[in-house]
Design a protein that fits this description.
The chain is of the alpha/beta class and about 280 residues long. It is about 35% helix and about 25% strand.
Length: about 280
């Protein structure tokens, strides 16, 4: 099976190119797709820092590329955008597509420990396998200069991955992240099925729990949260993360945005601020 990525589409945008690739993932045991937005290049020797974007429930690698409008500022700032898929696909595990908030399209960026879901290793895919694949196949990317961002479930992924890998990422930001999943229905459903009943294991994938362990954070964490987000009170619990950051002195800029919901209309409004936030850290 071909582990080397093959290009399956290419579209020019703001002088650069959205390119979609397919490859076989040994870690996940299936074929996966991902997008790269390459900004325009002035020379063949130019190497771009990378910003990983982790999408939310029901999404794949296409949503951010098609809806965010992030390419305009990425082009201007010279940063490559990397958008992986949100779960393994095509494995036909019983029950994988029965609900929108679990299974396919809902990998929660963790390494599942339960046998039935053993292929759901999205943490290792994002942190280890995909960066190595990029380093080996795309010399124009400088994967040693990387930052990470995401939305909702992907915001949860970005925060937890960043906190546990402060040596790998220069900065983190999130839109409406699932901030305290051990205490919300989405997180409890996913963690019970993927990780089993030991709640101590859940805390390893909860940003609010992790911040007390991994609080040597230098770059300010940026979070935008729409005040009209219907998931804010029950699922996102961003206030809990804010309290946890305050208790250990982690720099957090939490911007509550009046009138905004959970959609890509919200993301596209503020994505420029997030990319500039990361560019500042990547260029230090």
């Amino acid at each position: 099976m071909e582990t080397k990525p093959s290009e399956i589409s290419s579209s020019k945008m703001f002088g650069g190119y959205n390119k979609r690739y397919k490859h076989y993932s040994p870690k996940l045991g299936c074929s996966m797709t991902f997008h790269i937005y390459f900004p325009p290049s002035s020379s063949t020797s130019q190497k771009f820092p990378v910003l990983y974007w982790l999408s939310g429930l029901t999404c794949n690698d296409e949503n951010f590329i098609a809806k965010s409008g992030a390419q305009r500022v990425a082009s201007a700032e010279g940063v490559a955008l990397i958008a992986p898929d949100t779960s393994p696909r095509g494995l036909n595990v019983e029950g994988e597509s029965e609900s929108w908030d679990f299974g396919v399209g809902a990998g929660f960026y963790l390494n599942a420990t339960q046998e039935k879901w053993k292929n759901w290793q999205m943490y290792d895919y994002v942190v280890k396998e995909l960066p190595q694949l990029l380093t080996e196949n795309f010399p124009q990317l400088d994967t040693s200069r990387a930052s990470i961002s995401g939305h909702s479930m992907g915001g949860h992924g970005a925060l937890t991955i960043y906190l546990k890998n402060l040596d790998k990422y220069k900065s983190v930001s999130a839109f409406a992240p699932v901030s305290n999943p051990i205490n919300c229905p989405w997180g409890q459903k996913a963690f019970t099925n993927y990780l089993g009943g030991n709640k101590a294991d859940w805390e390893a994938y909860d940003a609010t729990c992790l911040i007390s362990k991994f609080h040597d954070v230098k770059a300010t964490i940026l979070i935008d949260q729409g005040e009209d987000d219907k998931f804010l009170q029950e699922q996102l619990l961003v206030n809990k993360f804010e309290e946890a950051c305050r208790s250990v002195g982690v720099p957090l800029l939490l911007r509550r945005q009046p009138g905004y919901d959970h959609s890509y209309f919200f993301i596209s409004t503020f994505i420029e601020d997030h990319i500039r936030h990361h560019v500042q850290a990547l260029n230090l």
